[in-house]
Amino acid sequence: MHHHPVKSSRIHSIAYDESSGILEIRFRDNKILQYLGVPPRIFRDFLQVVSKGRFLRRRDQRKIY
Question: Where would I find the KTSC domain in this sequence (predicted)?
Fold first, then answer.
């Protein structure tokens, strides 16, 4: 998966594999989270929001999608 660098105080980059629906988030402390079964629109939305951390917290509370 190709990681896209993002502007965030906590998140370093994000990657998405559309064929498997895996969203991967690499944090600045090098921890990695993977979410399975993520629709493509969630990845597109994630790339476009200003606050990546806020988006992740809100989505995570609802199981990402």
Answer: 7-62
